[in-house]
Amino acid sequence: MPREEGEPATDAILAAAARAGDVQSFEELARRHQDRLLRFLLQRTSCRADAEDALQNALLKAYRYIGQYDARWAFATWLFAIGQRELSTIRRRQRPTMTLAEETAGAAPDGDDRSAEPAIETPGELWALAKQVLTDEQYAALWLSYAEEMDGATVARVLQRSKVWVRVTVFRARGTLRKAMEGQKWQGQEQVGTKQRPADAGGGQ
């Protein structure tokens, strides 16, 4: 079906043009998807520089190998898969020199009373909790499924796993997160109850 005048080109049209050598079409694809890809990468690492490096590497490789793009899949899926691999490569290279401080980043300091934290109230808090209690792959599968609203087949392609693996991983991740949320709620209620408990009879002046 021909495109009406003024209607934005679809990713499929731009990808086909890019494969034919149209640099401007690829640049438009990059503009469309780079923010989403960076957001996804930032969820997988605490280092913004690593995420930005992985993004740039992914865009360069996507441009270099655009001829290998399979139009049966969404361009975003292909680009996310490249970004995922690039970030994994960066993290593997850094692992031998990772400091103890980096390895323990995010751990509660000695004496930190987590029972004083309130129950989960916002999406941001929910994802922060997920990052604490889930493995990297569980978090990635959950993020792609819910934050990026990808279906199971697309998530499987990005993470280079089977669809069954994605279903099982998302199911287990949700269970783990649910238990963690219940724990947060219980702790918050316990703290509130402690604060609101009246003084013992006869203890006041």
Can you walk through the features of this model?
By secondary structure, this protein is mostly helical. The protein has two domains: 9-97, Orthogonal Bundle (Rna Polymerase Sigma Factor, Chain: A); 117-197, Arc Repressor Mutant, subunit A, CATH 1.10.10.10. Helices cover 66% and strands 0% of the residues. The chain contains nine helices and no strands. The N and C termini lie far apart (84 Å).
Question: Secondary structure elements and their pairing?
Answer:
Elements: H1 11-19, H2 23-42, H3 48-64, H4 75-94, H5 100-103, H6 123-133, H7 136-147, H8 152-159, H9 163-196
Order of helices and strands: HHHHHHHHH
Structural domain tally: 2
CATH architecture of the largest domain: Orthogonal Bundle
| CATH class call of the largest domain | Mainly Alpha
CATH topology name of the largest domain? Rna Polymerase Sigma Factor, Chain: A
Count of extended strands: 0
Radius of gyration: 23 Å
Structural class assignment: mainly alpha
| Percent range of helical residues | 55-70%
Q: What oligomeric arrangement do these chains adopt?
A: single chain
By DSSP (H or I, 4+ residues per run), the number of helices equals 9
Task: Indicate the mean pLDDT.
Answer: 77
Summarize the main sheet.
none
CATH-assigned homologous superfamily of the largest domain: RNA polymerase sigma factor, region 2, helix turn helix motif
- In the predicted model, the low-confidence regions spanning at least 5 consecutive residues are 96-121, 189-205
Strand content: under 5%
Shape descriptor reads: elongated
Task: Report how far the terminal alpha carbons are from each other.
Answer: 84 Å
